[in-house]
Q: What sequence folds into this?
């Protein structure tokens, strides 16, 4: 289906109508800007006027044809007998050709206007070598160069404004993307902290509450209730600390976060708590720390290592079979901090407490944020393959969590 022919804008119609009315008044009173060659021109001067009105109607929708029509009408107007209205409308056509025409047309119109002005000035001086002939060049410049230069200036300003708007929109879009990424990162960080702070205590509560309900021994039930109470109190205290951190101001939050970040020096206390929570499960916990005594690593690295050990120990309480759980820490000068947790495991057993797998995801995210390497999986199996991620093979006996953390990281964990 052919597209409809665009109609001239309303303003262009008003300009053409005003120019036609002004030209009719000048023609009626025989007011010409050049001396007519004949005393009785009749309606002949109205022909260039009408053609120039058509060019004005096409000034926005018909470039470069509007300019070509305007040039022809101006030449005819100068030959027959010039009306000022026709000349003024031509200046508007030149202005519109630069402003609304194609990008290359703007430069060409200004160049051709300059050439035409110089040519007309030379011709006038050659025909009448008098100073007054220079006025012809001045008039020609006002009719051609001035409107072309004005149109080019406005066009450049419009293009600059358009580029600034696009740049502002891009900046706003990038800012929104950064904001969303920051919100997502903060939500992920909060999810990891909530999981690591609460999951350990809730797992112990679930395990010992099950034992308290299933055991008939009153002493064992009381011991289980004691562990449940301790974990409830500790979990509530840590939750209150996290809520206070979230409610603190920007400066207070950074200070509180630094104070609340756990250090590897607290691993002994963590293992003691895990031993108490895992009493009666047949698990023994051993810490092998070969780091240089007194060595302090950046807070984000120590916090990530602590949380990895904490979550690994929580998983052992849920899934590990009776045996020895070994926590190893190793670090050499210039090398990464290596965290390794090994626990006995067997297939077919039911977990002591339910889990959703969020702990492994959180550990992997922590390591990835620091640019380290993370592995979790069985270390022995039918084919004797090394650590991998996936279901435990039928003959697997040891589950290993291993993380290598760069020791020179300064960013948040």
A:
């Amino acid at each position: 289906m052919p597209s409809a022919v665009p109609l001239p804008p309303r303003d262009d119609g008003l300009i053409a109508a005003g120019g036609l009315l002004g030209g009719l008044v000048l023609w009626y009173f025989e007011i010409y800007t050049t001396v007519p060659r004949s005393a009785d021109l009749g309606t002949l001067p109205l022909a260039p006027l009408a053609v120039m009105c058509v060019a004005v109607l096409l000034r926005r929708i018909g470039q470069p044809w509007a300019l070509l029509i305007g040039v022809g009408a101006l030449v005819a107007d100068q030959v027959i007998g010039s009306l000022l209205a026709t000349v003024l409308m031509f200046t508007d056509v030149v202005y519109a050709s630069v402003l609304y025409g194609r990008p290359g047309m703007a430069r060409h119109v200004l160049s051709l206007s300059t050439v035409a002005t110089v040519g007309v000035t030379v011709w006038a001086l050659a025909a009448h070598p008098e100073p007054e002939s220079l006025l012809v060049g001045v008039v020609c410049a006002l009719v051609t160069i001035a409107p072309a230069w004005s149109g080019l200036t406005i066009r450049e300003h419009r293009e600059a404004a358009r580029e600034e708007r696009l740049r502002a929109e891009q900046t706003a879009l990038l800012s929104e993307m950064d904001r969303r990424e920051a919100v997502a990162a903060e939500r992920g960080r909060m999810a990891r902290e909530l999981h690591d702070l609460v999951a350990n205590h809730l797992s112990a509560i679930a395990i010992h509450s099950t034992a308290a309900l299933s055991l008939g021994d009153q002493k064992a039930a009381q011991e289980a209730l004691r562990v449940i109470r301790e974990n409830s109190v500790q979990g509530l205290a840590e939750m209150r600390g996290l809520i206070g951190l979230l409610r603190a101001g920007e400066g207070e939050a950074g200070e509180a976060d630094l104070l609340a970040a756990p250090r590897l020096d607290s691993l002994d206390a963590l293992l003691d708590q895990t031993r108490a929570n895992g009493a009666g499960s047949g698990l023994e916990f051993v810490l092998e720390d070969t780091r240089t005594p007194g060595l302090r690593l950046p807070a984000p690295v120590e916090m990530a290592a602590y949380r990895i050990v904490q979550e690994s120990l929580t998983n052992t309480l849920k899934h590990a079979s009776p045996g020895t759980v070994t926590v190893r820490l190793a670090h050499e000068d210039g090398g990464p901090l290596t965290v390794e947790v090994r626990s006995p495991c067997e297939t077919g057993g039911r977990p002591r407490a339910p889990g959703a797998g969020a702990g492994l995801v959180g550990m992997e995210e922590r390591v990835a944020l620091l640019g380290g390497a993370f592995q979790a999986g069985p270390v022995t199996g039918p084919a004797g393959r090394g650590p991998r991620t996936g279901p435990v093979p039928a003959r697997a006996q040891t589950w290993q969590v291993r993380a290598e953390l760069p020791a020179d990281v300064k960013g948040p964990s």
Q: What stands out?
A: Residues 145-214 form the longest helix (70 residues). The radius of gyration is 44 Å. Strands lie at 283-289, 323-331, 337-344, 373-378, 398-405.
